Amino acid sequence: MRKVNQSAFLAGGCALLGGGLLLAGVARADVTSTNSAGLVVFPKLVVDTKGAGRIDTIIQLTNTSSQPVNVRCFLVNANGHCVSADDIVPCNPEGDPAKWTCDKGEQCVPGWQETDFRLRLTPKQPIMWTVGSGLERLPLADVPTNGYFNDGNIVPAPEDPMVGELKCVQVGEDEKPVDRNDLMGEATIETVARPVGSTSPSVHVDSRGYNAIGIQAIEGENDGDNTLVLGQEYNACPNVLILDHFFDDADEPSSVGDKVRTHLTLVPCSEDFNLQAPITTTVQFLVFNEFEQRFSTSRPIRCFSEIVLSDIDTRLGPHGDAQSIFNVNVQGTLTGQTLVRGVADAATTYGHGLLAIAEEFQGPSFTTPQPGAPVFSSAYVAHQRGARTQLDYVYLPEAAPAQ
What we know:
Blueprint: E1 3-4, E2 31-32, E3 39-47, E4 53-63, E5 69-77, E6 80-82, E7 90-91, E8 108-109, E9 113-121, E10 126-130, E11 162-171, E12 183-193, E13 204-211, E14 213-215, E15 227-230, E16 240-246, E17 250-251, E18 259-268, E19 271-272, E20 280-289, E21 294-302, E22 305-308, H1 328-331, E23 335-342, E24 354-363, E25 376-381, E26 383-385, E27 392-395
């Protein structure tokens, strides 16, 4: 069942086919991570305060205009759950089986559930919150005299740990989508951990940030209903995603003894937040090394995928990574480039466009990890080429405008 949280803010004044990729012709800036937009996407959120270290995601959403802006946001919980645990134990269906929280013999079943909330941002206003805690309304007595206050709640993560995404769309006073492009966003994933067995008060802090991906509304084309048509009312999703990366287990050139590993997060452009019906997309990967040798593979994804590159074409976990086309042991070069594309089909009510971010981790060997050893990370949005010819659709539930 879809969870809905109708709250308001008022502030201040669903896994991947080998083969060639058909690249689109002229590159177009249809989707951007540097300009304001009417639809913004945060592909990767993570919360885990119960593990060895505390991990949370800080979200910043900004109104860049000189007018107030209303926003509807949709927080997606993409956790899997253990079958025989009455769906109460979160797990990662694409994670290392040795690290699953399911008991022996249990299966980690993928899941997908969204919770929505609304915001109202005053002119030029940024607002910031952590996914794990959300943001509660201020008591009236605590409202600052400068006029900056909030009148509602941003919902926290429904589970801990949790992995998922966030989409926010600009709407009018009636909460129907509008053809304005005033939103920008940033996400920072922060980890605070103490080395295993250490009694020292010092901790290791690591953070990685990325800009939200903005999809711009097309002026004069938005009909204001609850179906966002990407490629008609909004700019089209990119046809091809371009990922420049180290191959997994490559030696980090600037740090002796450290290895590099990359996690790829893919989210669909088409999503049904009304009926919560996940969409499965076949994703093609075309991999080039520094010798311009070409390799390919594919894998289906269902609504959300966060996976280590070397697990895309081998079994999950470190076993078998050395045989992956994303691994330095196969490629023989430190770096390479991967082209990613969702395969179009004859569907007319959804598309197979994709958005992605990559997270690069540097530390000791990931196949034989050293407990307590610090790991350093960075995150970045995948480059984009061309525009999809197949339309993508985002279906919103009926809105309940604030009184």
